[in-house]
Design a protein that fits this description.
It is a single chain. By secondary structure, the protein is an alpha/beta fold. 39% of the residues lie in helices and 11% in strands. The protein is built from nine helices and seven strands. It has a seven-stranded parallel beta sheet, sandwiched between helices. The longest helix has 25 residues. It is globular and about 45 Å long.
């Protein structure tokens, strides 16, 4: 048993500073080899957790990075500092990814900062809200979750595509819940299933049209600010205990999947596929 202290945050997205223990999302032990030298990457939800680890990992591999985030300014500032400490350039842009207008402007600013284009797009931003009785699920919650998790992914990808060339890579964050479901996260799980279908369909269209590879990562229980911002004290303390490995994973254990999929040299024969860093759960998909 790897139980954490009971803790909860009342606001989504969650913040990293109050979390105990602190998440491992700084890629401190990553040994880089220049896999993404000279690349330009855009990461949504890049302020903390998986998005932060991916941004830092990309930077250590030689990429300049732009991150989109909602309003976690302190966390985003720390991510930017760590990317720059790795020797790469970084811009952070705050706003609501569910707003197509914001997305268009932010992607254009990101591309301009990166030198006029985007080589790697990571669609990672998401939110989730527990509802134990589906008969009581608020309509506005369902609409909000879909707007952030899947519609935002549509808007970002649509805005980024004109700025991406042949050989680019798109990596979408789905979830183990897309395969297993979750009784208390029905709307969230539904969006993650939609992301799975989006990935498979888009991969066929974009490889044929533009030679852009599209793949996904489906994390299991990972210790990020989204967890105490979503669950009650007791559930947060036990997060990940039901996995085969009996613990929640860390963002640093997930980010290598994104680095692998971003690298054309390493994953040139993968399109429409999903990697599963989930602590040993077999999902047959």
């Amino acid at each position: 048993m790897n139980q954490r202290p009971e803790q909860h945050q009342d606001q989504q997205p969650g913040r990293e500073a109050p979390m105990q223990p602190q998440p491992q999302d700084r890629m401190e032990h990553w040994r880089a080899s220049g896999k993404l030298a000279g690349k330009r990457a855009l990461v949504t939800g890049g302020d903390s957790g998986i998005g932060r680890a991916v941004a830092i990992g990309f930077a250590k591999e030689g990429a300049d990075v732009a991150i989109l985030y909602k309003d976690e300014h302190e966390d985003a500032g720390e991510t930017r500092r760590l990317v720059e400490a790795a020797g790469r350039r970084c811009i952070s842009l705050a706003g609501d990814i569910g707003d197509a207008g914001f997305v268009r402007d932010a992607v254009a600013k990101a591309a301009q900062f990166l030198g006029g284009g985007i080589d790697v797009l990571v669609n990672n931003a998401a939110e989730q809200h527990v509802c134990e009785d589906f008969a009581l699920i608020p309509e506005e919650q369902v609409e909000r979750t879909f707007r952030t998790n899947i519609l935002g992914m549509f808007w970002v990808t649509k805005a980024a595509l004109p700025l991406m060339g042949e050989g680019g890579a798109i990596i979408n964050t789905t979830s183990v819940t897309a395969y297993k479901g979750s009784a208390g996260l029905v709307d969230y799980s539904a969006t993650k299933g939609a992301i799975l279908a989006f990935t498979r369909s888009l991969s066929q269209a974009l490889w044929q049209q533009r030679k852009i590879r599209v793949n996904a990562v489906a994390p299991g229980p990972i210790w990020t600010p989204l967890i105490p911002a979503s669950f009650d004290d007791e559930s947060t303390a036990k997060h990940g205990e039901a996995s085969t490995m009996g613990r929640a994973g860390e963002a640093d254990e997930v980010a290598p999947c994104y680095i692998f999929l971003a690298s054309a040299a390493d994953s040139s024969y993968l399109a429409g596929q999903v990697l599963h860093p989930n602590g040993g759960t077999v999902v047959n998909g």
